[in-house]
Amino acid sequence: MIKLENVSKSFGDKVILDGISVQFERGKTNIIIGPSGSGKTVLLKSVVGLYDIDGGQIIYGDVVFSSLNIGEKREIRKQIGMLFQGGALFDSINVEENVMFPLDMFTEYSIEEKRDRVNFCLKRVKLENANSLFPSELSGGMKKRVAIARAISLNPKYLFCDEPNSGLDPKTSIVIDNLIKEITEEFDITTVVNTHDMNSVMEIGDKVIFIHHGEKAWEGTKDDILHTNHDDLNDFIFASPMSQRLRKFLGR
Amino acid sequence: MGILYHIGRYFLFLRKVFSKPEKHIMYYKQAIREIENLGINSIGIVAIISLFMGAVITIQTAYNTTSPFLPPYLIGLAARDSILLEFSSTMVALILAGKVGSSISSEIGMMRVTEQIDALEIMGINSASYLVLPKIIAAMLFNPLLTLISMGIGISGGWVVGEFTGIITTEQYLEGIRYAFVPYYITYSLIKTVVFAFVITSISAYNGYYVEGGAIEVGKSSTKAVVFSSVAILMFNLILTQLLLT
C-alpha cells in the first residue's frame, strides 16, 4: 500500500500538485486519470521519487519515503517496477539483456537461473522467442511488453505504469491492460496506472482517482464513474463527439 | 543561470558519479565496453591526424630554418619536441573532445529524453555513476596509450615527409629526434592526457545528463559539450604547463 498525504509540488511559480491525499491499495489496479497537463505524470514521478515534493508525505507501507535520503530511496526503489510511456528500454542491448539487467545488478543468481527468470518473465508477457531482438526491431506493443517483463523480473511490490497505452492500437491496448491486471492480481502488488484512456479505466480500474488542475477532484470505483454527477469528470469522460452524444442520451 | 550555477551543479554531479558502485563487476564490464567505444575506435582518427600533423610540423620547421648556421637535424629535434610536448597531448585531446565528447553527450542526452535514465533510477541504480564512471575510467586508462601511438606516428610522419620531399635525410632526422632527448617530456604529456581525458568525459557527460527537451536539445548539448571541453582543455593545458614545466 502507498499513502499520499497532502502532496504538493511546484515548478517555479506554477503549482502542479496541490495537496493531494490518496491511498493506493495493494493487489489492486489504481488508476489516475485526468486531462493532459493536469499533473498526472508529475504525481507519478513524485511518488517514485524522480521529483522531490515540496510538501506532504509519501508513505510506502510504513516507511515515509519522501523523508528518506537518496541512498535509502534507492533501496525502496529496488521493490518498484515501472513501465514508462515509451518503454524506456536500453537500446544498446537486446531483449534478454534488458530483462536480465535488474537481475545482473541486484542478484547473485547464476547465468542459468537468470536465463530461467528472463524466459519466465518473457513468457508471462507472451513474448517467447524475442530474446535476441533489439528494441529498434520491436513494435510499440512489444516494447511495452518487454518493459513489463523487465519491471517484474525482480518480483516488485509496486508497479507503476505511465500511459501504458499511448501510441498503441485498441487491440494491443487491451492486451497490455489485461497483462497489467493479471500481473497485479497474480503477484499481489500495488499497481498505479496513469492514463487518459477511458477504455483502460473501465477494463482494469479497481480504484480511480481523477486529477484536475493539480488537485484530487474525484475518487471512486469504475462503477461509480457511470453514476457520477461531477461536472469536470463528466466533461473529461465525455470529451469526444461520440461520447457527447452518449452523454446527451444519458442526460448528464 | 550563470556559470557559477553550472560549476556548482557540475561538482554535485561529480559527487554522484564517484559514489559507491552498486555492483563492481557490472561497472568493470561497462568500462571494458567503453574502452572499445571511446578508445579503440579512436585509434584510426588519432593515427591519421598524427601522421599529417608530424608531416606538417616537419615541413614548417624546415621552411623556417633556412639559415646555413642551423644544422638540419634541428628539424627532427623541433618536430619531436613539438609532438611530445604539445601536439600529441593537446591537439589529440581537442580532436577527441569533438569525436568522443559529442558521442558521450548525445548518448547520455538521448537516454535522458527517452527516460532510460529515469528507468535506471527507478531500478535503484545511481544512473550518473553507472553511465559516467566507466567512461571516465576507460578514457583515463586508454587515452595515454592513444597519446603514445600519436607520438610514434607523428614522428614517423615527419620522417616520411622529410625523406620523400628531400628536405631532410633519414640520418639527419634520426639524429634530431635522438638529440638532447628529455624523457620527462613524455611523462608531462601523459599527465596532461589523463587530465584531459577526465575533462572531456566528465564535461560531456554533464552536458548530456542534464538535457531537457528533445532531439534539438540533445544536439545543442552535444555542441556545448565540445565547446566547453575544448575551452577547459586549453585552460588546463596552460595550468599544467605552468605547474609541470617551470
Helix content of chain B: over 70%
Q: What is the CATH architecture annotation of the domain at 1-72 and 194-252 in chain A? A: 3-Layer(aba) Sandwich
Distance from N terminus to C terminus of chain A (CA atoms, Å) equals: 34 Å
Major beta sheet of chain B, specifics? none
Main sheet summary of chain A: 6 strands, mixed
Please state the structural category of chain B: mainly alpha
Written as H for each helix and E for each strand, in order along the chain, the element string of chain B is: HHHHHHHHH
Radius of gyration of chain B: 21 Å
Q: At the fourth CATH level, what is the homologous superfamily of the domain at 1-72 and 194-252 in chain A?
A: P-loop containing nucleotide triphosphate hydrolases
Contiguous runs where pLDDT drops below 50 for at least 5 residues of chain B: none
CATH topology of the domain at 1-72 and 194-252 in chain A: Rossmann fold
DSSP E strands of chain A, number: 10
Number of domains of chain B: 1
Number of strands of chain B: 0
Please count the helical segments of chain B: 9
Biggest interface reads: A-B, 25 and 14 residues
Write a brief structural summary.
The complex is a heterodimer of chains A (252) and B (246). By secondary structure, chain A is of the alpha/beta class.
